[in-house]
Amino acid sequence: MIKLVILDRDGVLNVDRHDYVKSPEELVLLDGAAEAVARLIRAGKTVVVATNQACIGRGIVPESAVLSVHEALQQRVALVGGMFHKIYYCPDAVDTPRRKPNAGMLLEAMAEFNASPTETVMVGDAARDIEAGLTAGCRSFLVRTGKGLESETLLKEKNVTNYTTYDDLAAVVDILLQ
Ligand SMILES: [Mg+2]
């Protein structure tokens, strides 16, 4: 039984920008993403975000701006009845235990919301999301939005195969709630 759903942010919930989402004005949700979150909430799941935001560590976007974007993200999903129980972000610009592909943020979420690896799923559009999910022992889903298509190729090259791919978050939620 799935209890905790951990979502990557850029490319899963909102349009990924090569120059980072720097303000709420630049936050553009992907079609159906907010509704998919709302369906998980209505089904009683705990839903969190785990996002790398190296733009903070690199000095490109102030942490306060990232927090405003997260507030806006909460408001957008709330409009359709969704919410995030917590938004974890990693400001580090270099490899650290919290920064995906490492599993730090996922392990924090599982501890905080008391979910075992078998009760947890990870959804992302990047190879590092899938790698973090598998390291944490969670079922991992790649979505074809965002960087998804290039990530499928990258994961194949890395011989990572124990994950499943769906078109978008709504399709993953269909599977989780069926
Ligand atoms: Mg992403």
Might you state the CATH topology name? Rossmann fold
SS-based class: alpha/beta
Write down the CATH class. Answer: Alpha Beta
The average pLDDT is 98
Order of helices and strands: EHEHHEHEHEHEH
CATH architecture: 3-Layer(aba) Sandwich
Task: Give the percentage of residues in beta strands.
Answer: 15-25%
Percent helix, as a range, is: 25-40%
Strand order of the largest sheet: 3-2-1-4-5-6
Could you tell me which ligands this complex binds, including any ions or cofactors?
magnesium ion
Could you give the distance between the termini? Answer: 12 Å
CATH homologous superfamily title: HAD superfamily/HAD-like
User: What kind of sheet is the major sheet?
Assistant: 6 strands, parallel
Morphology call: globular
Keyword list:
178 residues; alpha/beta; Rossmann fold; six-stranded parallel β-sheet; 7 helices; globular; binds magnesium ion
Molecular structure report:
The protein has helices spanning 33-42, 54-57, 63-78, 104-112, 127-135, 148-157, 169-177; strands at 4-7, 46-52, 86-90, 120-124, 139-143, 164-166. The chain has 178 residues and is of the alpha/beta class. It has a single domain (4-177), classed as HAD superfamily/HAD-like (Rossmann fold, 3-Layer(aba) Sandwich), CATH 3.40.50.1000. A six-stranded parallel β-sheet has the order 3-2-1-4-5-6, sandwiched between helices. Strand 5, helix 6 (148-157) and strand 6 (164-166) form a beta-alpha-beta unit. Helix 1 packs parallel to helix 7 (169-177). It is globular, with a radius of gyration of 15 Å. Magnesium ion binds next to loops. The site of magnesium ion (MG) has 9 residues, from loops.
